[in-house]
Amino acid sequence: MPALIALIALLAGALNTVQAGANTTLNKALGQPVLVALTVSAANVLVYLAAAPFVGLGWPGSGRFAQVPWWAWLGGAMGGAYVLAMIFLAGRLGSAVFAGLTVTAGLVTSVVLDHYGWVGFAQHPAGPGRILGCGLMIAGVALISLF
Fold first, then answer.
1. Contact 24, 87 (CB under 8 A)
2. Where would you find the membrane-spanning parts of this chain (predicted)?
3. pLDDT tens-place string over residues 23-64
4. DSSP secondary structure letter of residue 120
5. With contact defined as beta carbons under 8 Å apart, do 36 and 87 qualify?
6. Based on CB atoms within 10 Å of each CB, which residue in 14, 26, 31, 98 is the most buried?
7. What's the distance, CA 23 to chain centroid?
């Protein structure tokens, strides 16, 4: 099962990169970035509805809404900001640089979030190996950007 989970995560990462190209191409064709973002959001809804029979869909009790931290409601807005950044920047930067920057920024942020156990993540110390890994990612993006 862990191998299947890792495979799905790898596929999601690959799809994220291909999505940047598809969204950039759609924006070039339509010339309306907000319309492209709305189209992406509509497609997201369709995917979620198609997945619902397999993962479940229900309405939580009202008491559960009160338990949600204020910042947890901002995840969708963060996703929207990412999609807009993708639409505006991926075509200008190129796939490798855009993906490298976003993945590296995500990895560095993840190490910090894990280290402190922030925003619902379990605490995992940022030891020398993790810090070195972040440094190597930054060096890799620098090399990709230069060449």
1. yes
2. 36-59, 71-90, 96-117, 129-146
3. 999 999 999 999 999 999 999 999 999 999 999 998 888 889
4. G
5. yes
6. 98
7. 14
State the amino acid at position 140 in one-letter form: G
DSSP code per residue over 61-125: -HHHHHTS-GGGGGHHHHHHHHHHHHHHHHHHH-HHHHHHHHHHHHHHHHHHHHHHTGGGPPP--
Note the Cα 29 to chain centre separation in Å: 24
Q: Compute how many other C-beta atoms are within 10 angstroms of the C-beta atom of residue 98.
A: 20
The domain segmentation of the chain, as residue ranges, is 2-146
Describe the crossing of helices 95-116 and 2-30 by its angle, rounded to 10 degrees: 130
Enter the pTM of the model. Answer: 0.85
SS3 53: helix
Token pair in block for residue 66: 């009160």
